[in-house]
Specification:
With about 180 residues, the chain is α/β, with parallel strands linked by helices. The chain is built from six helices and ten strands. The strands form two sheets. Strands 5-4-3-6-1-7-10-9 form an eight-stranded mixed β-sheet. It has a two-stranded antiparallel ribbon with strand order 2-8. Strand 9 (about 165-170) and strand 10 (about 175-185) form a beta hairpin. This is Dihydrofolate reductase family protein. One of its GO terms (molecular function) is 5-amino-6-(5-phosphoribosylamino)uracil reductase activity. It comes from Paenibacillus aurantius. InterPro entries: DHFR-like_dom_sf, RibDG_C, Riboflavin_Biosynth_HTPR.
């Protein structure tokens, strides 16, 4: 069975976006891009909620993204993408499949198919339902050295506590820290 790895950038105060959906504070530098390229080589599919998908689809296929980070952009554009959505009727970003049914059931089916791990980027609301169904196998949380104070809290609405087991903690020169966990037990 394939693993589903949730990757999210957070602030120290646990926010994944600032007011109005601002993510301009995400710290992305060469060291992060090396990590991202390696991570994208280890997966063969990307999972998104609609809102995250729309942001990614507006950025990665652009000439700016290809110029700024060609390795990550090429992989983001080529990998199969799966979007949990109730509202989208079509997707223009190459290699995108819309998951229009029950998101947890659709993603459980994807996990049962052969292949490497799947990466779930952002998509905090979708992640809540996947955590509840026990479908996330690993959490990779990049903590950015910043306190926003206001914005959207990661995994808001998770109804019960979940214990996690630390796999790795890695500090970057930027001050970001990557924390990797798996569900305990």
């Amino acid at each position: 069975m394939r693993k589903l790895i949730l990757q999210m950038m957070l602030t120290v105060d646990g926010l994944y976006e600032g007011e109005g959906g601002d993510i301009g504070w995400h710290h992305v530098d060469e060291e992060f891009n090396v990590y991202a390229a390696d991570f994208l080589r280890s997966v063969d599919g990307l999972v998104f909620g609609r809102i995250t998908y729309e942001g990614m689809a507006a950025y990665w296929p652009t000439a700016y993204a290809m110029e700024r980070d060609p390795v990550v952009a090429e992989r983001m554009n080529k990998l199969p993408k799966y979007v949990a959505t109730r509202t989208l009727t079509e997707a223009e970003w190459e290699n995108t499949t819309l998951l229009r049914g029950n998101a947890a059931e659709e993603i459980a089916r994807l996990k049962e198919s052969p292949g490497k791990a799947l990466a779930l980027f952002g998509s905090s609301r979708l992640a809540v339902s996947l955590v509840q169904q026990g479908l996330i196998d690993e959490y990779r949380i990049f903590v950015n050295p910043l306190l926003l104070g206001r914005g959207s809290r990661f995994l808001q609405g998770l109804p019960v506590p979940r214990k996690l087991e630390l796999l790795e903690a890695k500090a970057y020169r930027s001050g970001c820290v990557l924390l990797s966990y798996r569900p305990a037990g």
